[in-house]
Amino acid sequence: PTASSVNTYTVEYAISGACSITSTFTIAITGFLADASFNYPSNYYCQGSSVSINPVVTNPGGTFTSNPAGLYSNPTGRINIDSSSAGTYIIEYSTAGDCSSTSTRSIQIDAPDAPSLSYSSYTGCENASPSLNFNPTLNIPGGNFTSSPSGLNLNSTSGIITPFGSSTGTYTIVYTTPGSCPGATSVLFEVYPEDD
Q1: Running DSSP on this structure, what letter comes out for residue 50?
Q2: Residues 7-21 as b or e (16 or more Cβ within 10 Å = b)
Q3: What SS3 class is residue 7?
Q4: Sign of the CA dihedral 25, 26, 31, 35?
Q5: Which DSSP string do the residues of 56-109 spell out, in sequence order?
Q6: Main-chain dihedrals φ then ψ at residue 104, nearest 5 degrees
Q7: Strand 184-192 versus strand 123-125 pairing type
Q8: CB 89 within 8 A of CB 70
Q9: Measured between alpha carbons, how far is residue 36 from residues 10, 41, 43, 96, 118 in Å?
């Protein structure tokens, strides 16, 4: 059929001989295979983005399926990232009509990192020795540290806390992992005022 033109044809089959017979049937070539190509804005997503994505389809009106189970999507191909399980999925689109065709794309969804952060102590004095430092213990290194409110002597790269030179108060220290699917965790650290 790929080399034939769109049309309706009558095909005749004949058996020759003394008792020759013929038989005919009709075949209709209604069109060419529809273009089933489609795309998503990206093939990689991280949970926690609170987004749903829609496909761009060359010939809309068909249906979408996916494998394995765990992808939260509907027949139009709309995917809810946060409602889906982490994993790699094969998405198939089939066009509608008599000359249906299919195409596939791969989508990867990752869960955010789950970092842990701890210090040997969560308190210090503002008049402590300048050499007294508290080093963090991490399960996923290489990220970034922030603290709020301002006033804590905290190294944003290493996470080392130096109570000396810090203002008194209670601080929230947030650690955010590096990479394509970052996660965050936080601890409290308190700086006490100088003893009388």
Answers
A1: -
A2: eeeeeeeeeeeeeee
A3: strand
A4: negative
A5: EESS-S-EEEEESTT--B-TT--EETTTSPSEEEEEEEE--STT--EEEEEEEE
A6: -130, 155
A7: parallel
A8: yes
A9: 30, 17, 18, 9, 52
Per the DSSP assignment, residues forming a β-bridge with 66 are 91
User: Counting every residue, how long is the chain?
Assistant: 196
- Rounded distance between C-alpha atoms, residue 7 and residue 25, angstroms: 14
How many angstroms separate the CA atoms of 78 and 80, rounded? 7
Q: Is 177 exposed, middle or buried (0-12, 13-18, 19+ CB in 10 A)?
A: buried
Residuewise pLDDT in 10s, the chain (196 residues)? 556 677 777 888 888 777 778 888 887 776 678 899 999 999 999 998 778 999 999 999 999 999 999 999 999 999 999 999 999 999 999 999 878 899 999 999 999 999 999 999 999 999 999 999 999 999 999 999 999 999 999 999 999 999 999 999 999 999 999 989 999 999 999 999 987 5
Residue 86: both structure tokens together: 């982490």
Per-residue DSSP letter, 125: E
Q: Do residues 145 and 173 touch, judged by C-beta distance below 8 A?
A: yes
Beta-carbon count within 10 A of 161 CB: 25
AA letter at 91: I
